[in-house]
Specification:
Among the domains are: 230 residues, Immunoglobulin-like; 74 residues. The protein is 22% helix and 37% strand. By secondary structure, the protein is α+β, with helices and mostly antiparallel strands.
Length: 439
């Protein structure tokens, strides 16, 4: 039986781990790079374009009149701004904009201390006019509209410079559905946030893998999404360092949202087994050159918000070391050696997730369901000219998506997912270019 903990249309698909360097130059980038090599007629032209749209206050269900809108024009390290206001129907327009792939635009506005921004917009000859509508001011705080479809854990070695003291790296990937038509917000202390998820106590070295808006609150030991949770499906993933104590890796926590399924991915060769009885017998699967035992929670069981779920892994290294079962005097070194041996082939570099194609999915859904890792690894291997080519290609591809969506040639779900992925990748690229310039 195949397992796909993040696919919402087919939760019995197949999950695999992919390498950052190899996977990040997959099919989407191939399409984007193809777009870059289009004839020069798509590059720069004297014909101007425009960005326009309507700003609607969803609280009152009426247009915002005389509301300020700001356009930022980015070209290289230079940024210029223009400002306009909406008319009596809530419409705005920035005109006479160059159709230049080396230029990208940001449109932003502020409403009730909340920023609304659309980034990385490119105008070209095949998409000279972009419509960006802003629906602002309306959110839901109904927690029953938010459900975690799958919460997965992958056990990996600690960083190479970490002491062999029983530490492992834990990767968590959380597939979330906001069933409302509005973005979700909730309270975290005195702050309004998109969501907050409890972590086990004594986590170290938290790192977000999906978005800069994901952080940790050390006071409450919770993962916090600082921006609203958009409608539809989202995937957040992060990692941290955690320690085995008394032959247990205790990842238990209180749930803030209803959760459908849990998964553990344990490298074959280390004897970590779930303590809870609601996990089925493991399935053995080869993933990215390594073999994993995949433990899945019993189908049909829902874990309710407000309950504390037992996510403890019992650790028995006795068979690997000749020690007695439960012996812990040298548990740190044993774990480090066993996990590293089980993950040979560069898994620690890979440790991000991709969905295999569900058998009954369409081509569009296949693209939509892919969880895309960041581009940092392979970008470092490119020279500055190649990185500039990639930047232009990504901008062109984002604009192409906008054009396809405006013409209703792709679904809203596919459009939002692809645009988010390409924008995140473009951000990673721009950050890499900035680091190179400052070096």
């Amino acid at each position: 039986m195949h397992i796909n903990p993040f696919s919402y249309s087919n939760l019995r698909g197949n999950l695999q781990v992919r390498c950052v360097i190899s996977a990040c130059i997959g099919s989407l980038l191939a399409v984007a790079l193809t777009l870059f090599w289009l004839p020069n007629s798509h590059a720069q032209t004297a014909t101007p374009g425009d960005i326009q749209g309507t700003v609607i206050d969803r609280k009152r269900q009426e247009p915002l009149v005389a509301h300020p809108m700001i356009l930022t024009i980015h070209k290289g390290d230079i940024a210029e701004t223009q400002e306009t206001t909406t008319d009596e129907d809530g419409n705005y327009r920035f005109g006479d904009l160059p159709l230049d792939p080396s230029v990208h635009y940001t449109v932003a506005t502020l409403y009730e201390d909340t920023d609304y921004t659309e980034k990385d917009i490119v105008l070209s000859t095949w998409a000279p006019n972009i419509t960006l509508n802003f629906d602002i001011g309306a959110f839901t705080d109904d927690k029953t509209q938010v459900q975690i479809k799958a919460h997965s854990f992958v056990i990996a070695p600690p960083p190479p410079d970490h002491a062999p003291d029983g530490a492992v790296t834990v990767f968590e990937a959380v597939g979330i559905v906001n069933q409302s038509d509005l973005p979700f917000q909730t309270k975290h202390g005195t702050q309004t946030v998109g969501l907050h998820l409890t972590l086990p106590i004594r986590t170290e070295g938290f790192q977000s893998r999906s978005t800069k808006a994901l952080t940790i609150d050390p006071a409450t030991n919770e993962v916090v999404l600082t921006t609203p949770l958009p409608p539809g499906e989202s995937l957040i993933d992060y990692d941290y360092i955690f320690h085995v104590e008394k032959s247990k890796l205790n990842l238990s926590r209180r749930l803030n949202f209803d959760t459908t399924e849990f998964y553990f991915f344990v490298p074959e060769g280390i004897n970590f087994t779930p303590n809870a009885k609601f996990f089925d017998a493991p399935k053995r699967e080869q993933i990215h050159g390594g073999v994993y035992l995949i433990y899945q929670s019993t189908a049909g069981k829902t874990f309710k918000a407000g309950t504390t779920v037992d996510l403890t892994l019992n650790v028995n290294m006795g068979s690997a070391s000749g020690a007695l079962p439960g012996q812990t005097s040298d548990i740190g070194k044993l774990i480090l050696i066993a996990v590293a041996a089980a993950l040979t082939g560069g898994f620690f570099v890979a440790a991000l997730f991709k969905l295999r194609t569900p058998n009954n999915s369409t081509a569009a859904n296949n693209i939509d369901d892919a969880a895309t890792p960041p581009d940092v690894g392979w970008l470092r291997k490119l020279d500055p000219n190649d990185r500039e080519h990639v930047r232009i290609a990504r901008l062109e591809f984002i604009t192409h998506l906008d054009d396809k969506y405006e013409k209703q040639e792709i679904s809203e779900r596919v459009y939002k997912r692809l645009r988010r992925e390409q924008t995140e990748r473009l951000t990673t690229l721009l950050e890499q270019q900035k680091r190179e310039n400052n070096a």
